[in-house]
Amino acid sequence: MAEYTITVYETGKQFPCRDDQAVLKAMIHAQGPIRHGCCGGGCGVCRMKIVKGRYEAFKPMSASHVSEADRADGIILVCCIQPRGDLVVARV
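Given the sequence above, the corresponding structure tokens read:
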């Protein structure tokens, strides 16, 4: 099991995230309250942009909240991804 560093672009805050952990779960643990809803990929509240780094989606994201164009631009739901390297994420 690997552990990577997630950096929030706007604040520079960093926190660890295991490769078997959803980025949202690591954010909640590290930062306390963060905007989130269903934690299952259906509500779209945790939309963020991947500025840099690799990830893997481990569950489907609602197409009504993340279009193909969004995904091509790096916009994802952080409840549905696990890191595959260090990540830089930004609010959208």
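The chain has one domain: 3-91. Try to locate this feature in the token string yourself.
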